Structure formats: structure tokens, C-alpha cells
Amino acid sequence: MMMLNCDATAMVAPMDEQRWALDLFKQTTVSGGLRRLWGALRGRRVALRSLGAAGRHGGHDLGHQTVAIDEIVGSEGRAGDFDSRFAPLSERTRDRWVSVAQARNRGRALPAVLLIRAEDGYYVRDGHHRISVARALGEEFVEAEVISWE
Known about the structure:
alpha/beta; Conserved hypothetical protein from pyrococcus furiosus pfu- 392566-001, ParB domain; 6-stranded mixed beta sheet; 23% strand; globular
């Protein structure tokens, strides 16, 4: 399989930008599919965890933080759209994913993601596509607004 150069600092010419973003999306979904197949064969969990509201109480604002993407373990409401490494599970998310990748390529500042800190890690409330694109670009950290659930 051809591997794309996913250096986050490399700018792609505007006329090639959409092709680059679509190719990156395709590469990410294919590698995610292979990872899920391999995980199923080995009996390993590859699904994104889902954070349910049951038993959760209040919480407090922890403010702006830099969070390691590997510490993000799940989603508050989109666990069916991404796998445990935030690879998209279907073409349904493609247009939004590609637009985020294009914005990143243009150097546009995107809002911090919104994460919930729970006992077992961080869960995404808002910013699934931004995290997915960041991971596809090889980034290890994401800027986030974090709240804590108790």
C-alpha cells in the first residue's frame, strides 16, 4: 500500500489540496479497516469506547490543556463513527473530515477540542474529526478545553 507523506508542516498546493485530503482520508480508513480486521482475528478491542451519562455527576472545568492523543479513549456520542485510533468507520464522515484536513493544510487555526476527563481517560465531546485528522498527520498532542466528570 502506498504511504502518503503526512508531514503536518508540508503545505499542499491548493489545486492538489482536495486530492491530498481525500487520499489521506482513504489511507486512514483503509488502515483502520485493516487494524479492525487484525484486532478481530486476535480477539482485541478496536472499538472506540462510549461515555454514557448514567452515573455521572456534575464536574468542573479544568481549563485549556495540551492532551496526548493516546490518552483519548472514547467519545461521548460518536463512538459509532470512529475506531479506537479515531480512524473513520464509514464514508459518511468523509466530507467533514476532508474539510478539516484542508483547513489544517491551509494553516487555519481550529478551535480546541472539548474533552471530558473520566477515570479511565479522556472522552471527546466535540472535535472528533480534528482528532482524527491530527492522528492521521502523525501528531501526538491536541489542544483541548477539558472538563472533569466525577
